[in-house]
Amino acid sequence: MSSHKNKEHLNTIREAVIGSDRLKEDEKTDTIKRIDEWLLEDRASGTFAEELLELAPEIRAMLTELGLI
């Protein structure tokens, strides 16, 4: 997947996390922090999806709704 697409996906996930009512505030904070780091590092999509699920298992439904897994 291209770097540009990865950044688009991460930004989409970031916005969904911010607006989520499924995640606790600490999960949102940790997830946003990690996503911001990945945007700077230009992470591959497979890697960030796995790590997000470790941070907050509830994020699986969100990623599915976004069509990312």
User: Which term fits the overall shape?
Assistant: globular
SSE order: HHHH
Q: What is the first-to-last residue Cα distance?
A: 13 Å
Number of helices: 4
Largest sheet: none
Average pLDDT works out at: 83
Low-confidence stretches: none
Rg from C-alpha positions? 11 Å
Percent of sequence in beta strands = under 5%
Structural class: mainly alpha
Helix content: over 70%
Helix-strand layout with pairing:
Layout lengths: L2 H17 L5 H17 L3 H11 L3 H7 L4
Q: How would you characterize the overall build of this protein?
A:
This protein has helices spanning 3-19, 25-41, 45-55, 59-65. The chain is mostly helical. Helix 1 (3-19) runs antiparallel to helix 2 (25-41). The chain is globular and about 30 Å long. The relative contact order is 0.21. The mean pLDDT is 83.
Short summary:
The chain is mainly alpha-helical and 69 residues long.
Descriptive keywords:
single chain; 69 residues; mainly alpha; 75% helix
